[in-house]
Amino acid sequence: MEISYYLCSINRGVEQLVARWAHNPKVTGSSPVPATLKPHNGAFFMFTVYALYSESSDKIYIGYTSDLEARMLSHNELATKGYTVKYRPWKVVYTEEHSEKREAMKREKSLKSAKGRAFIWSIIRG
């Protein structure tokens, strides 16, 4: 009885691997290949890292998004709570494009460091 259970477990594992391989032929082991750039509505998804500046409050905000236009609308008009609501209006002072979300997140994090903020302030101050 133990042998048949063991064989069923092996078969189930092989079936899952074959099913995953059929869905994504790049899969070679138990870990799938990382996601790659995928088209979205015929265009490739890009991520924008941005820095905003509020002249009225002399504040900066750093973030990333896949739709900067919609995000600016949220920061300046639609949002009802949060940091950016307190210091409106905001204007874009710096942007960078990235093809992968993880790259954009990494760059956002670096811009939020003391050195990154100093870089943004140097752009604002001219």
Q: Quick recap of the structure?
A:
The protein is an alpha+beta fold and 126 residues long. It is built from 5 helices and 5 strands, in the order αββββααβαα.
Name a few traits of the molecule.
126 residues, GIY-YIG endonuclease, 5 strands
Walk me through what this model shows:
It is a single chain. With 126 residues, the chain is of the alpha+beta class. The chain contains five helices and five strands. The protein folds into two domains: 1-33; 39-125, GIY-YIG endonuclease (3-Layer(aba) Sandwich), CATH 3.40.1440. The chain is 48% helix and 21% strand. The protein has a three-stranded antiparallel beta sheet with strand order 4-3-5, sandwiched between helices. The chain has a two-stranded antiparallel ribbon with strand order 1-2.
List the helices and strands and how they pair.
Layout: H1 2-23, E1 39-40, E2 43-44, E3 47-54, E4 59-65, H2 68-78, H3 83-86, E5 91-98, H4 101-111, H5 114-125
Antiparallel strand pairs: 1-2, 3-4, 3-5
Q: Major sheet: order of its strands?
A: 4-3-5
Instruction: Give the biggest sheet.
Output: 3 strands, antiparallel
Give the CATH class of the largest domain: Alpha Beta
* Portion of residues within helices: 40-55%
Series of H and E elements: HEEEEHHEHH
Strand content: 15-25%
User: Under the CATH scheme, which architecture of the largest domain would be assigned?
Assistant: 3-Layer(aba) Sandwich
Distance between the termini: 78 Å
Poorly predicted residue ranges? 4-9
How many extended strands? Answer: 5
